[in-house]
Design goal:
The chain has about 500 residues and is of the alpha/beta class. It has 17 helices and 25 strands. The relative contact order is 0.09.
């Protein structure tokens, strides 16, 4: 798709949202879809119509989807036709919510769209019939009211939250992080300004495997579009052989990813030095980068991985390494321009270079707060400084290294997993008395959840808990190991000691 096509179609989507779906300024549009061509069109259309956008993991279970839709109070749910059965299960709980369905064939020419659509629906039988009233993407674009104008001043202002990205922050339950378009565009400019001669070069091609519903993926979308770059979307990176065509056809210059993605590609026979040699810039974030993966990637591609550090509450990036000689291996780089980082010790004093403490940040990309949660918002800040919940060290030159986490969050392949959510699911089983969940280091995914269970029914088997988790949790959240114990380690006031559980897990 050309920039002109994206602009024209997103204008029509704005018309559909405003004049057909009847959204009002500030209403929320939830988008639950993989990286397909219609995703950016719908995203931009929603913003043009004055809506706020909330990305939803397309692999969410009905329970998880209902929780986010309830919290964000979505007026429109944009779904993916392959998961039509999920929409059928969830949508009746929200009778006033409109449903718009996308397809992997969206954005193709008429002949190819019909061919791909028929293949998915009738041959591979990937697309189920739906009972919930809905509108297809192509129907929305062609609707007679989609051409009606939408006032340019309808879009949310720079300082109004137009993104609701869900994060657990330093606690367990996911909360809507209120982010602004100003914060996103500034964050893109902050990173690009550190290596402008390479990052702002016109016509760069980027292959995006990172999901668009994640702010890391959204950041790369904004970054590529801001430079007039060519963005290649990968709807499904599993198996990784799916990416061979993208590398072969488009020879990307820029490749953002996470440690597990890099490690997996290095194991692929098709990912040869010749095919990978086009990559000039590789970004790594969301989870720690393994030194062995970093070195092997450099040897295979010739591209040095640039490590960054950030979080959803900071739009995306707080610190990053400059490209070139100033890229300091093993660190997360220096604060991006306009951002200040400090390290605060347990006694509340600011640490000196080389001393450990909590990483705190200030900058224009930092969130305005959590949606409808003033107490949690207040707790997330320390006199105006965002508390990240991570333990880090700044060296004499201002480079940041993350050494530990205050929070109990588990990071699986770059995705945040909150022990409390898993514990709530398992604790609902009548045969469970108590449960504690922690992360165990894993060579492939960084970490995996492990559940320690105290049984109230001695006949309870591991398989029953696995089946329960399979029905209520997305795959990466499910415990990979269930361990039955007589009791959980606790403090004198009865708090479960996760550190002790982590030691037991290891």
């Amino acid at each position: 798709m050309s920039y002109g096509e994206v602009d024209q179609q997103s204008d029509r989507m704005a018309g559909w949202f405003k004049h057909v779906a009847k959204i009002k300024r500030g209403d929320v549009v939830a988008i639950q879809a993989p990286n397909i061509l219609s995703y950016p069109v719908v995203l931009l259309g929603a913003l043009k119509a004055g809506a706020a956008v909330s990305g939803v993991n397309p692999l969410y279970t009905a329970r998880e989807l209902k929780r986010q839709l309830t919290d964000c109070q979505a007026s429109v749910l944009v779904g993916f036709d392959v998961f039509g059965a999920l929409i059928d299960e969830v949508a009746p709980s929200f009778p006033d919510m409109k449903v718009l369905m996308l397809s992997v064939a969206d954005g193709f020419g008429l002949v190819r769209r019909n061919l791909v659509g028929a293949l998915a629906k009738h041959v591979k039988r990937l697309v189920p019939k739906m009972s919930v009233p809905h509108t297809r993407f192509a129907e929305a674009l062609q609707h007679e009211r989609a051409t009606l104008p939408v006032a340019p001043d309808l879009a949310l202002k720079d300082d109004e939250a137009c993104f609701l990205a869900y994060s657990g922050g330093t606690t367990g339950d996911p909360k809507g992080v209120a982010l602004t378009s100003r914060g996103l565009l500034i964050n893109v400019a902050q990173v690009q300004s550190m290596s402008a001669e390479r990052l702002q070069k016109p016509g760069l091609t980027a292959v995006l495997v990172l999901p668009l519903y994640h702010m890391y993926g959204g950041f790369m979308l904004a970054s590529t579009l801001s430079n007039g770059g060519h963005l290649v979307l990968a709807p499904s990176p599993r198996p990784l052989s799916n990416l061979k065509a993208a590398f072969t056809c488009f020879r990307p210059d820029v490749f953002p990813g996470v440690n597990t993605l890099f490690a997996g590609l290095l194991e692929e026979e098709w990912f040869t030095e010749e095919l990978a040699s086009s990559i000039d810039i590789t970004f790594s974030g969301a989870t720690a980068l393994s030194p062995s993966v970093r070195d092997a990637w450099r040897a295979r591609t010739g591209s040095e991985i640039v490590e960054s550090y950030g979080m959803t509450e900071a739009t995306t990036v707080l610190t990053t390494n400059p490209l070139g000689a100033e890229n300091r291996k093993g660190t997360c780089g220096v604060p991006v321009p306009g951002t200040t980082i400090r390290i605060v010790k347990d006694d509340g004093s600011v640490a000196q270079p080389g001393e450990r403490g909590e990483v705190q940040a200030k900058g224009p990309q930092v969130m305005s707060g959590y949606r409808n949660a003033p107490e949690l918002t207040e707790a997330a800040f320390d006199n105006g400084w965002l508390r990240t919940g991570d333990i880090g060290v700044l060296d004499e030159d201002g480079y940041l290294t993350i050494v530990d986490r205050l929070k109990d969050m588990i990071i699986v392949s770059g995705f945040n997993v909150y022990p409390g959510e898993i514990e709530d699911v398992i604790a609902a089983h009548p045969g469970v008395q108590e449960v504690g969940v922690v992360g165990l280091p894993d060579a492939k995914s960084g970490e995996v959840p492990v559940a320690f269970v105290v049984r109230s029914d001695d006949q309870l088997a591991e398989v029953a808990i696995h089946q329960l988790c399979e029905s209520l949790l997305t795959a990466y959240k499910r415990p990979k190991d269930i361990r039955f114990v007589d009791e959980l380690p606790k403090s004198p006031v009865g708090k479960v000691l996760r550190r002790t559980l982590r030691e037991m897990a290891r």
